[in-house]
Specification:
The protein is mainly alpha-helical. The chain has one domain. The protein is 75% helix and 0% strand.
Length: 145
Protein backbone atom coordinates (compact mmCIF):
# COMPACT_ATOMS: atom_id res chain seq x y z
CA UNK A 1 0.00 0.00 0.00
CA UNK A 2 1.41 3.37 -1.05
CA UNK A 3 0.99 5.92 1.76
CA UNK A 4 0.29 8.73 -0.73
CA UNK A 5 -2.76 6.79 -1.93
CA UNK A 6 -4.34 6.60 1.51
CA UNK A 7 -7.35 8.86 1.91
CA UNK A 8 -7.33 11.49 4.66
CA UNK A 9 -10.31 9.77 6.28
CA UNK A 10 -8.16 6.66 6.83
CA UNK A 11 -5.57 8.76 8.63
CA UNK A 12 -8.28 10.43 10.72
CA UNK A 13 -9.66 7.04 11.74
CA UNK A 14 -6.17 5.76 12.57
CA UNK A 15 -5.38 8.74 14.81
CA UNK A 16 -8.78 8.64 16.55
CA UNK A 17 -8.49 4.87 17.02
CA UNK A 18 -4.93 5.19 18.35
CA UNK A 19 -5.80 7.94 20.85
CA UNK A 20 -8.94 6.18 22.08
CA UNK A 21 -7.09 2.87 22.20
CA UNK A 22 -4.27 4.41 24.25
CA UNK A 23 -6.70 6.05 26.68
CA UNK A 24 -8.47 2.78 27.41
CA UNK A 25 -5.36 0.58 27.17
CA UNK A 26 -3.46 2.67 29.71
CA UNK A 27 -6.45 2.91 32.05
CA UNK A 28 -6.96 -0.84 31.81
CA UNK A 29 -3.24 -1.54 32.25
CA UNK A 30 -3.11 0.51 35.45
CA UNK A 31 -6.34 -0.98 36.81
CA UNK A 32 -5.28 -4.57 36.03
CA UNK A 33 -1.56 -4.53 36.81
CA UNK A 34 -1.06 -1.71 39.33
CA UNK A 35 -4.34 -1.49 41.20
CA UNK A 36 -5.72 -4.96 40.51
CA UNK A 37 -9.25 -5.75 39.32
CA UNK A 38 -10.53 -6.67 42.80
CA UNK A 39 -9.12 -3.49 44.36
CA UNK A 40 -10.62 -1.52 41.47
CA UNK A 41 -14.00 -3.11 42.16
CA UNK A 42 -13.75 -2.40 45.89
CA UNK A 43 -12.55 1.21 45.56
CA UNK A 44 -14.59 2.43 42.61
CA UNK A 45 -17.71 0.27 42.61
CA UNK A 46 -18.49 -1.55 45.86
CA UNK A 47 -17.38 1.18 48.28
CA UNK A 48 -19.10 4.15 46.64
CA UNK A 49 -22.27 2.32 45.59
CA UNK A 50 -22.88 -0.16 48.43
CA UNK A 51 -25.72 1.99 49.81
CA UNK A 52 -27.57 2.21 46.48
CA UNK A 53 -30.20 -0.14 45.07
CA UNK A 54 -27.52 -1.99 43.08
CA UNK A 55 -26.85 -5.52 44.36
CA UNK A 56 -23.35 -6.21 45.70
CA UNK A 57 -22.78 -9.03 43.18
CA UNK A 58 -23.36 -6.60 40.28
CA UNK A 59 -20.91 -4.09 41.74
CA UNK A 60 -18.20 -6.74 42.23
CA UNK A 61 -18.79 -8.24 38.79
CA UNK A 62 -18.85 -4.94 36.93
CA UNK A 63 -15.97 -3.46 38.90
CA UNK A 64 -13.80 -6.49 38.20
CA UNK A 65 -14.67 -6.85 34.51
CA UNK A 66 -14.41 -3.19 33.43
CA UNK A 67 -10.59 -3.03 33.72
CA UNK A 68 -10.23 -6.22 31.67
CA UNK A 69 -12.55 -4.87 28.98
CA UNK A 70 -10.66 -1.56 28.88
CA UNK A 71 -7.32 -3.34 28.56
CA UNK A 72 -8.46 -5.84 25.91
CA UNK A 73 -10.59 -3.46 23.83
CA UNK A 74 -7.97 -0.70 24.06
CA UNK A 75 -5.38 -3.15 22.72
CA UNK A 76 -7.68 -4.20 19.88
CA UNK A 77 -8.28 -0.56 18.92
CA UNK A 78 -4.57 0.20 18.91
CA UNK A 79 -3.91 -2.45 16.27
CA UNK A 80 -7.27 -2.19 14.54
CA UNK A 81 -8.33 -5.77 15.09
CA UNK A 82 -12.01 -6.55 15.70
CA UNK A 83 -12.52 -2.81 15.83
CA UNK A 84 -16.33 -2.77 15.82
CA UNK A 85 -16.72 -5.26 18.71
CA UNK A 86 -14.04 -3.38 20.67
CA UNK A 87 -15.89 -0.08 20.12
CA UNK A 88 -19.18 -1.63 21.21
CA UNK A 89 -17.57 -3.00 24.38
CA UNK A 90 -16.04 0.37 25.19
CA UNK A 91 -19.33 2.11 24.42
CA UNK A 92 -20.97 -0.16 26.99
CA UNK A 93 -18.25 0.74 29.51
CA UNK A 94 -18.92 4.44 28.89
CA UNK A 95 -22.64 3.90 29.49
CA UNK A 96 -21.93 2.04 32.75
CA UNK A 97 -19.48 4.74 33.91
CA UNK A 98 -21.93 7.50 33.03
CA UNK A 99 -24.74 5.71 34.88
CA UNK A 100 -22.54 5.26 37.95
CA UNK A 101 -21.39 8.86 38.05
CA UNK A 102 -24.92 10.17 37.57
CA UNK A 103 -26.27 7.79 40.24
CA UNK A 104 -23.74 9.17 42.72
CA UNK A 105 -24.06 12.77 41.57
CA UNK A 106 -27.06 13.58 39.32
CA UNK A 107 -25.42 16.74 37.97
CA UNK A 108 -22.01 15.11 37.43
CA UNK A 109 -19.92 17.08 34.93
CA UNK A 110 -18.90 14.27 32.61
CA UNK A 111 -17.68 16.57 29.83
CA UNK A 112 -14.02 16.10 30.87
CA UNK A 113 -14.10 12.32 31.15
CA UNK A 114 -16.90 10.74 29.15
CA UNK A 115 -17.61 13.17 26.29
CA UNK A 116 -14.12 13.21 24.70
CA UNK A 117 -13.98 9.40 24.73
CA UNK A 118 -17.52 9.14 23.43
CA UNK A 119 -16.81 11.64 20.65
CA UNK A 120 -13.82 9.61 19.43
CA UNK A 121 -15.78 6.38 19.72
CA UNK A 122 -18.77 7.74 17.79
CA UNK A 123 -16.54 9.17 15.08
CA UNK A 124 -14.79 5.84 14.51
CA UNK A 125 -18.04 3.88 14.77
CA UNK A 126 -19.76 6.13 12.22
CA UNK A 127 -17.03 5.67 9.60
CA UNK A 128 -17.40 2.87 7.05
CA UNK A 129 -15.19 -0.14 7.81
CA UNK A 130 -13.68 0.20 4.35
CA UNK A 131 -12.22 3.62 5.28
CA UNK A 132 -10.17 2.17 8.15
CA UNK A 133 -7.40 1.08 5.76
CA UNK A 134 -4.57 1.36 8.30
CA UNK A 135 -5.68 -1.51 10.52
CA UNK A 136 -5.22 -5.23 10.94
CA UNK A 137 -8.90 -5.67 10.05
CA UNK A 138 -8.30 -4.01 6.68
CA UNK A 139 -5.11 -5.98 6.07
CA UNK A 140 -6.93 -9.26 6.79
CA UNK A 141 -9.80 -8.23 4.53
CA UNK A 142 -7.46 -7.41 1.63
CA UNK A 143 -5.57 -10.65 2.19
CA UNK A 144 -8.76 -12.72 1.95
CA UNK A 145 -9.49 -11.28 -1.41
Amino acid sequence: MNLSQIHSRSWAILFARAVLGLIFFMAGWWKVFSLGPLEHAQRLFVGPYSETFLPAWSLWTTGTIVPLIELAAGTLLLVGLWTRPALLALGAVLVVVTFGHLLAEPLYEFHTHVIPRLALLLFILSMPDSDDRLSVDSWLSRRKG
